[in-house]
Amino acid sequence: MCPGSSSASAGVVPTAATIPAHPLSDLAAAATNAVTTANVAESNLPDDPDDEPLYAARKKIYPQYVSGTFRRVKWALLVVTLGIYYFLPFVRWDRGPNAPNQAVLIDFPGRRFYFFFIEIWPQEVYYLTGLLIVAAMALFLMNALAGRLWCGYLCPQTVWTDLFVTVERWIEGDRREHLLRDQQPWSIARITRAASKHFCWLMIAWWTGGAWVLYFGDAPTLVIDLATFKAPPVAYGFIALLTFTTYALAGWMREQVCVYMCPWPRIQAALTDEYALNVCYRYDRGEPRASLKKAASLHEHGLPAGDCIDCRQCVYVCPTGVDIRHGPNLGCIQCGLCIDACDAVMARIGRTPRLIAYDNDLNIRARQHGGQTSYRFVRTRTVLYAVIIVVVGAVMAYALATRHAQALTIIHDRNPLFVRLSDGSVRNGYAVHIANKHREAQNFILQVTGLAGADVETIGSERNAEGEPVIAVGPDQTRQVRVIVTTRQPLEPDASIPLTFSILTARGQVGATATDRFVGP
Ligand code: SF4
Ligand code: SF4
């Protein structure tokens, strides 16, 4: 493990006097006053970690803008994920006549879920189970490879908070400007700025809620209905609810959600191992910290000085207010922005980048002792997660590709199980459910095999020229018929004979089969 404690935020709200005039131009001055730390593992540990409170009142965080590789990755993912969320309901997908043409649609009245070419019925909810297994394994795999990739780049809380912080920065200015403004008394200009910010946040939150309901109806029609107040009240209710939650979670609560509300940081902490890469301060390189001036002085006296100049840029850019140099922290969502900040510092002072990097403690310790570093991505757990994803995905794909557009369910009469008639024959009764998933009515021929010479009588259905029962089922409907199977053949005592029920489509193909038993006295 990286050194230090899991203590919470560091240096969240400095006073105006401690804010550098410009983050990078004043590095040298900031670093001159920095404290040289002999060993971060010792110096930053609280006297007794058990003394830390379980909850600390929120201190407002003013994350400073930073540019670099990880910021660019985050921008790209923000545009892609929010673009998909806001605009996907408007994507069309032709499914032929009598079918909705919205690519992704949760159709409650029609009891269907449409996802491009895939159409799921309520009784096929097991696909959701498969999807959840794949999603969980993908999270575990990400965690085993590179820590909280989900939290740092893809989690909705992270993405929307990033968007809200960006809007805030446009209106209130970057960290220093915003801090100074917040320390000034309220004025017309300050109130106007704050009102503009909250208005923009509410607009984003409102559109977030609005986009959500568009997944439950034809989006273009629903937009018009919402605008003309003709949409169902539940749609307005959900928009209001999601507007409030988005505004509260991304605008006000932000990192509190990650630190106190979300269970994933705790789960992933239990799932991780020593080989997983995490955003890590390379204390083997960084310690002992020393300002540029102090480092020069130390070198003159033959003493060592690390690469960290204690400029705190990594802390200022952190959206959760964490000082990564203190070691692993539940508050660190591993967004990589501190890597960008430190790389910029290193470039400015002519030192090698990646003092903060995706790494693990094994490698840091190996470097400390002159050993070899290694990155083991192929491990038992990563292979296991990948295999589960592939197997479950393949099973779901196979089941989807080979599923029938009709389904058959048989329920044997429970009481009585059989009836002996006066002529000695034995009769069993069944409730047969046939589901027709076509958008047109279908005629199914019912066949029962397994009991030679048995009579099959279907109550309430027609018969074709061959005398076989023909059951008509309307489009998108399920029909139940009662089937009586009678045999005059002598049966063994306590007979239990397997029967196969099949329905044939109009083309003579077997649409679905189900098995049950014929029981005797
Ligand atoms: S780790 Fe890098 S950014 Fe952070 S204080 Fe040290 S030199 Fe500055
Ligand atoms: S410590 Fe670094 S990686 Fe962790 S949340 Fe803060 S900026 Fe992101």
Bound molecules: iron/sulfur cluster
Indicate the structural class: alpha+beta
Radius of gyration: 33 Å
Uncertain runs with pLDDT below 50, 5 residues or more?
Answer: 1-47
Separate helix tally: 18
Q: Classify the oligomer.
A: single chain
- Helicity range: 40-55%
First-last Cα distance: 71 Å
Q: How is this structure best described in words?
A:
With 521 residues, the protein is of the alpha+beta class. The chain is 41% helix and 17% strand. Strands 6, 7, 8, 10 and 13 form a five-stranded antiparallel β-sheet that branches. Helix 3 packs across helix 6 and helix 4 packs antiparallel against helix 18. The N and C termini lie far apart (71 Å). 29% of the residues are buried. The N terminus is likely disordered. One iron/sulfur cluster binds next to helix 15 and helix 16.
Q: What would a concise description of this structure say?
A:
The chain is built from 18 helices and 15 strands. It has 521 residues and is α+β, with helices and mostly antiparallel strands. Strands 6, 7, 8, 10 and 13 form a 5-stranded antiparallel β-sheet that branches. It has a 5-stranded antiparallel β-sheet with strand order 11-12-9-14-15, with no helix packed on it. A 3-stranded antiparallel β-sheet has the order 1-2-3, with no helix packed on it.
